[in-house]
Amino acid sequence: MMARAWELLETLDLAPHPEGGFYRRTYLSPHTLPPECLPPGFEGSRHLASAIVYLLMGHQKSVLHRIKSDELWHFHEGSPLIVYSIDIHGNLEEQKLGSNPGLGESYQVLVPAGRWFGAMVQQRDGFSLAGCTVFPGFDFQDFELGNRESLMAMYPQHRTLIRRLTH
Question: Which domains does the chain have, with CATH numbers?
Answer without folding.
Answer: 2-164 (2.60.120.10)
